[in-house]
Amino acid sequence: MVITRSRILKEVSSKKEEIIEWAKTLIGFPSENRPPDGDEGEAQQFLKQECLKIGLDVDMFYPDRVPEITSHPWWLCGRKYKEGRQNLVGTWKGSSKGRSLLFSGHMDVAPSAGGKWKITGPYSPKVEKGRLYGRGSADLKGGMAAMFWALKILKELGFEPSGDIIFESVVDEEFAGGNGALASRLKGHNADLAILCEPTRMQLCTACIGAFLGEITLKGRSGMPYMGFDIPNPIYGAAKVIEMFKKWGQDWTRSNQHPLFDEKGKELKILLWDIETKEPGEFTQMGTPALARLSWIVWCYPGTDQDDFRKEFLRFWSAKQKDAELRPFKLEHRFTYHYVRPWQTDVNDRGVIAAVDSFARCQGRPPVVGGAPFSCDMAIYGEVGKMPTVILGPRGGELHAPDEWVLIEDILSLVGVFADLSINWAS
User: Fold this and answer.
1) What pLDDT is attached to residue 280?
2) Which pLDDT does position 328 carry in this prediction?
């Protein structure tokens, strides 16, 4: 049966309200990732039932129960997978051995940021002025809705793929996770092309940046200064470290370039994201603290060597230890989480070309092809799964912040793009 692009787009238009309501239902599940735990279970069960309704073969499994995964060098230790916190993989079996296609997203969302929401509550999704608000709407349940509905519509139209089409929802991507994506790759749920629906603002991204994460701790001695005796305060030392870190970050940005990230706003950045003055669970009296600890993230482009970065980073801070304002303190460095690797797929790969063609056919214009200025699990799909991988997702805003939103227009557009790609790749 020949299914035309116009037929697909007509179906998307007629089912607009159903698609939006389905996306709202998915966003309504509080599937937060709060390391070491996460609450993806209820949402994954909903998705399981939806996959079964359209006839997909469903596999659900806990990441830590995949054979040999915990000894894999990319496994992130310390995460927990309680009852229900499972990956979901739905497979549409092809009629022969045609090219296979994987649509993948993550079910976990960032914590809801408390009561600071103004448009609506984080798990009370609301449509306003063409935007769908709610935690995870952009990152990335809006894109996941587009992927699911692309397959649902093709099923209803009677499409019969030659190759397998896989729809996947993994757990534990946020907070430098990756264990969910790693589990699916090691369990064999791989394909000839992978599409991730991270929010790329409708750009077709063949690369993403990576991230190093760590802490700098200034250690001194605690107490209350009195009778002319002073105690060096590590908070003041931390202020100096912040100043130095900012200058180092400017140099890092200037010295690193990549052709897929030459658009304004895609420059490398650093982030100091937390400061504390006591050990976990420690009670301290009013006075000079014994330590100040800064948590940081440094992003990097594809091609960055992990060992080289660490050596240069530590060499820089070793030299700064001699600064008069830092000399009273012992500086300790710890790399936390794990290296979130950057990745790049060849822009001339046939899968990339197919994705570009489908986008152009459905949108009436070629996509912007570039790099995604955020870190994600892309390298796991590319390196471990051995798949050419493309990221394509909707426009949105306030990611990981109150009043997160996704553009409804883009969800609907992506349903058409993903359905067209399925036909042209897996036929």
Assistant:
1) 79
2) 95
Q: Quick one: pLDDT at residue 296?
A: 98
Q: How much is the pLDDT for 1?
A: 64
Q: Clarify whether residues 258 and 368 are in a common domain.
A: no
Parallel/antiparallel/unpaired status of strands 101-106 and 165-170:
parallel
Domain range holding 287? 210-335
Identify whether residues 259 and 187 lie together within a single domain. Answer: no
The whole-number mean pLDDT for each consecutive block of 10 residues of the chain, a chain of 427 residues, reads 90 98 98 98 98 98 98 97 97 95 98 89 97 98 98 97 98 97 98 98 98 97 79 96 97 95 94 92 82 98 96 95 95 95 98 98 97 98 98 97 97 98 96
What CATH number corresponds to the domain at position 366? 3.40.630.10
Give yes or no: residues 280 and 194 share one domain.
no
- Which CATH number covers residue 255? 3.30.70.360
pLDDT given for residue 283 in this prediction: 74
Residue 120 structure tokens: 């609506």
Number of domains in the chain: 2
